[in-house]
TrEMBL record, chain A:
GO molecular-function term, one example from the UniProt record: oxidoreductase activity, acting on the aldehyde or oxo group of donors, iron-sulfur protein as acceptor
InterPro entries, alphabetized: 2-oxoacid:Fd_oxidoreductase, THDP-binding, TPP_enzyme_TPP-bd
Annotated Thiamine pyrophosphate enzyme TPP-binding domain residues: 54-201
Source domain of life: Bacteria
UniProt keyword annotation of rRNA processing present: no
Keywords associated with the record: Oxidoreductase
A matching Pfam family: TPP_enzyme_C
Origin organism lineage: Bacteria, Pseudomonadati, Pseudomonadota, Alphaproteobacteria, Sphingomonadales
SUPFAM superfamilies reported for this sequence: Thiamin diphosphate-binding fold (THDP-binding)
Name the record gives this protein: 2-oxoacid:ferredoxin oxidoreductase subunit beta
From TrEMBL, chain B:
Name this polypeptide is given: 2-oxoacid:acceptor oxidoreductase subunit alpha
Domain Pyruvate flavodoxin/ferredoxin oxidoreductase pyrimidine binding: from-to ranges: 264-436
Segments forming domain Pyruvate/ketoisovalerate oxidoreductase catalytic: 31-219
A Pfam family matched in the record: POR
Organism: Glacieibacterium frigidum
Length: 342, 626
């Protein structure tokens, strides 16, 4: 941010507060990755604000040696909007979950993305309500058994990244709690992007929804089922043995086996291509791998910049004359025993 | 109120008769431009030096079906050479532009008062829409009033004929024709109105000319039709007013200006997060234009986002303000609790309307006092202030900003739909008249090097206000109970007890930093105190004045600081034999007073969507002292 920002170590971004997540919770790994990333961003701790709502993930600010605001359920984007508009110099991070961000706070999420406020939004998706003890969430898969759905949920789940795209997000990325190598890179990209950076993090709730992402997160499944998208590179996975191509007749993606080294048919990842990003987000897991990394990045003017530039344009060289403001409109002066219109 | 209209003498020597105060109501279809007519007549009253009060009364529907009773829009003005405190109990003159307007308004016209009626709109269809089986102009149902019924529509069409407008456009000039007649009736100068028309229609000079022609024609009609009919010309002298600079101001305008002033006096930029709702929106409209005064307005996606964004702005070091009406305030309830527990300054304006639920969006009521004082989960005290008139909104808004920043607390301002839309003359203060209350942000750890955001000023119990961006002062706050000094999460029993006690003591203690309560009128001991709050001010004041003129021992006490109440209020009220509390609700302040002081406060309640009449309060006073 500026040349004076002191160089920090990851431990200087940690508070002295005891971390209160369940042992083995994926949140620990995310906290560690964030604390490891912060020194590399070149920002000062005092200019950083973590804002959260309610839920397990929302305890996050208490563990970051920055400014922090643990707000109310679902409303972190709204509070963050006030913070960023009041002081655009602050580096604002929102930490939320699938319940906080997409259920009770879905409306604020929608409008945050639409307005494109310059913040990083980390959505910890564990497909379950943790803090209220295991009820199904808006991202839970159909059939999820929980205290409120003892016979399995009958609702269809929401796809967070598809929601973000629909809301007009200009940066959409996806990563995994345990992806300690990749997550810092995704976080750095999110931080560098001016506008709302939407980052979905698959997070393992060890108590209420353990291993729900194991099909692509477990070590033995990772290579065959994770597709890390890199801008300008072919969309390859399974150690380069498979790739994605576009079937021009059906206008659908399909998986191709790569004949030795020949990737001519494979799609090149273009993170600025909205349609392609939508394809990567929408492809069903199972027949397809899970697309990870920066899926879409196409910057546009951020909200606080638009607000500020309009203010500068409108205010111009206007002087804030309060006395004149009070006397605006239909006014008249009464002098002793005299009345005249002005 | 002394509406002397009916007591005036016959016109002599073609000189206008003198009247002290007159109440005029313009009523017509929503599309007839009655609010505009009333607004311009108000300007004319202001320029004539009259004191005045207005009451715009319009339907919730933007364009209700033409000719229906629920589509009637009315504007009442009381103007005079004497002090005017209310928009008047009963009109002396009613202008009814169609049968529906006549039907819905005639009963409030003073007996013997004058109704001016446009017969051009009294066709069978409109009569039926208004629910008249028989044309009331043809039977004797209007016998108790003076009726001047003629074809205003035809008069208008004739007047604007030279300008070649279509029939519909031409008829739109009816309101200006009527305004012209009213200007003649009250001996007013037309020039400022013509100038206003020229500026309003500067892009369409033909419309400007047509409207001016209609205005002139209405005026000329008065001059020629005077002889022999009920139409008379009256002159209302300028009111005696303190010398100074004046403007007309509505509550919405005045509140916006007061918030700007309050933020300036605190040395802060203002952030106004709001979601449109009737009748609160004018405050947002007014502030959205004032960017050069350090005001950021944000039209949020909903009421909750509106208050949360304001809380975020306060956290970041600006003065966060949000505004709504009852239903929206209900939605903000949880966030209010967050502002209370995080002890951030915040001003919340509630422009009250009839409730519950959507209730009466465009009608006034005072039924959100319980909501303001008590309406949150947990023990969640905050400061509540009430405005009593459009111009008073300015001072109350400044007071709200002062208390919010000096005590680090949310402050709720209760105004209402009547105040928001009503206009009155306001002697504009000078910037130099204000006392600043600058905010100090905390930027240094304490003597032991600790960052303690919840350390307090021993007098006010205000906590520290630390802006993000301040080096070495990083800390976390939130909605979970805070440790008494660090603000860290703390669930311990003794800590919650202590924090709850402190939050209560802080707000209770505000009573020591506000002016003691004094009667507006009357003695500080006696037989009866009439205790009011909010927009009942004018009606109570006039009723108490009248009662005192009759020799009754009655005082008027009007409370601005609803919570906490002024420190001396209990003692003051105990000095009266009886206490009467008129309110536009079912008795909310009455309950609070009984609870706080164990006094036998008696209610006088009205929830019709219309303000109290002076006579209603006067009758209650008579009843208490009879």
């Amino acid at each position: 941010m500026n040349a004076m920002t002191p160089i920090t170590r990851p431990d200087e971004w940690a508070t002295d507060q005891e971390v209160r997540w369940c042992p083995g919770c994926g949140d620990y790994a995310i906290l560690k990755a964030v604390q490891r990333t912060m020194p590399d961003l070149g920002t000062a701790r005092e200019n950083t604000v973590f804002v959260s709502g309610i839920g397990c993930s929302s305890r996050f600010p208490y563990y970051m040696e920055t400014y922090g605001f643990h707000t109310i359920h679902g409303r972190a984007p709204a509070v963050a909007t006030g913070i960023k508009l009041a002081n655009p110099e602050l580096d604002v991070w929102i930490v939320t979950g699938d319940g906080d961000g997409l259920s009770i706070g879905g409306n604020h999420m929608l409008h945050l993305l639409r307005r494109n406020l310059d913040v990083q939004l980390l959505l910890f998706n564990n497909e379950i309500y943790g803090l209220t003890k295991g009820q199904y969430s808006p991202t839970s898969r159909t059939g999820t058994r929980s205290p409120t759905t003892p016979f399995g949920s009958v609702e269809r789940p929401l796809a967070p990244c598809a929601f973000a795209m629909g809301a007009g997000a200009r940066f959409v990325a996806r990563t995994i709690d345990t992806a300690q190598k990749n997550m810092p890179e995704v976080l750095k990209r999110a931080h560098a992007h001016k506008g709302t950076s939407f980052v979905e993090i698959f997070q393992n709730c060890i108590v209420y929804n353990a291993d729900v992402f194991a099909a692509f997160t477990e070590k033995k499944n990772a290579a065959d089922n994770q597709l890390w998208c890199v801008h300008g590179q072919p969309l390859l996975f399974a150690g380069g043995a498979k790739g994605l191509r576009l079937n021009h007749e059906t206008v659908e993606l399909e998986v191709v086996d790569i004949a030795v080294g020949d990737t001519t048919e494979v799609l090149i990842h273009d993170e600025t291509n909205r349609v392609q990003a939508q394809f990567l987000i929408d492809m069903p897991f199972g027949p397809f791998p899970m697309a990870l990394g920066v899926l879409y990045c196409d910057p546009a003017t951020s909200f606080e910049v638009a607000v500020e530039s309009q203010r500068n344009r409108v205010v111009g060289d206007k002087v804030a004359d309060f006395n004149a403001l009070l006397r605006k409109g239909q006014s008249w002066e009464i002098k002793a025993k005299e009345l005249r219109a002005v | 109120m002394a509406t002397a209209f009916n007591d005036v003498f016959e016109t002599q020597n073609n000189q206008p008769a003198e009247a002290e105060a007159v109440v005029v109501r313009f009523a017509g279809d929503s599309g007839d431009g009655m609010q505009l007519t009333g607004g311009q007549f108000t300007l004319s009253s202001a320029l004539s030096g009259n004191d005045f009060a207005t009451f715009p009364d319009f339907p919730a529907e933007i364009r209700a079906p033409q000719g229906t009773t629920f589509g009637v829009s009315a504007f009442q003005i009381n103007f005079g050479s004497v002090d005017i405190e209310t928009a008047g109990d009963e009109p002396d003159v009613l202008v009814a532009m169609n049968p529906a307007a006549l039907r819905t308004n005639i009963q409030s016209l003073k007996k013997g008062g004058l109704a001016i009626i446009d017969t051009g709109e009294f066709g069978a269809r409109n009569l039926a829409k208004a629910g008249y089986a028989v044309n009331p102009l043809t039977d004797d149902s209007l016998a108790q009033w003076q009726i001047l019924a003629f074809d205003i529509s035809a008069q208008t069409l004739a007047a604007v004929k030279p300008f070649g407008l279509g029939n519909k456009e031409a008829l739109r000039c009816k309101n200006m024709w009527t305004l012209g007649l009213a200007l003649w009736m009250f001996d007013r100068d037309r020039a400022p109105l013509i100038a206003w028309l020229q500026s309003k229609f500067s892009k369409n000079p033909v419309l400007a000319q047509a409207n001016a022609a209609a205005l002139n024609a209405g005026h000329a009609y008065g001059e020629t039709a005077e002889i022999g009919g009920p139409l008379k010309q009256y002159h209302v002298d300028a009111a005696v007013a303190e010398p100074g600079y004046y403007r007309t101001v509505t509550g919405g305008e005045s509140l916006a200006l007061g918030l700007v002033a309050g933020a300036k006096l605190a040395g802060l930029e203002m952030f106004f997060g709001s979601y449109p709702i009737t009748p609160a929106s004018p405050i947002l409209h007014n502030l959205a234009r004032l960017k050069e005064f350090g005001v950021t307005t944000f039209q949020a996606e909903d009421e909750i986002a509106a208050i949360c964004s304001a809380i975020g702005a306060s956290y970041a070091g600006q003065l966060g303000v949000t505004s709504s009406s009852g239903p929206g305030i209900a939605l903000k309830g949880e966030a209010l609790g967050l502002a209370i527990i995080t002890e951030l300054p915040l001003v919340i304006v509630n422009s009250q309307r009839g409730g519950p639920s959507t209730g009466l969006p465009t009608k006034t009521e005072q039924s959100d006092l319980y909501q303001a004082v008590y309406g949150r989960n947990g023990d969640a005290p905050l400061i509540v202030l009430a405005t009593r008139a459009p111009s008073d909104c300015f001072d109350v808004a400044i007071e709200a900003c002062r208390l919010a920043t000096q005590f680090m607390t949310p402050v709720m301002v209760l105004t209402d739909g009547y105040i928001a839309n009503a206009a009155e003359p306001w002697r504009v203060p000078d910037r130099a008249e204000f006392h600043a209350f600058p905010v100090d942000f905390d930027a240094e750890p304490d003597a032991d090097g600790r960052v303690l955001p919840y350390a307090r000023d021993p007098q006010t119990l205000r906590r520290k206000w630390i802006k993000p961006g301040t080096p070495g002062m990083m800390h976390r706050i939130g909605g979970i109970e805070k440790a008494i000094d660090t603000g860290h999460i703390n669930y311990e029993p003794a800590n919650h007890q202590a924090m709850t006690d402190i939050r209560k003591a802080k707000i209770d203690g505000v009573a020591n930093f506000i002016p003691p309560q004094a009667p507006e009128i009357g003695n500080s001991k006696g037989r009866l105190a009439v205790v009011g709050w909010g927009s009942t001010y004018g009606a109570i004041r006039k009723a108490v004045q009248r009662a005192r003129a009759k020799g009754l021992d009655v005082s008027h006490i009007h409370i601005r600081h609803i919570w906490p109440l002024p420190a001396n209020l209990g003692e003051l009220l105990r000095g009266y034999d009886k206490v009467l509390v008129p309110e536009m609700n079912t008795g909310q302040l009455k309950t609070v007073l009984r609870d706080q002081y164990l006094i036998d406060a008696r209610p006088l309640n009205k929830v019709s969507g219309h303000p109290f009449k002076i006579a209603e309060i006067e009758a209650a006073i008579d009843g208490m002292l009879g």
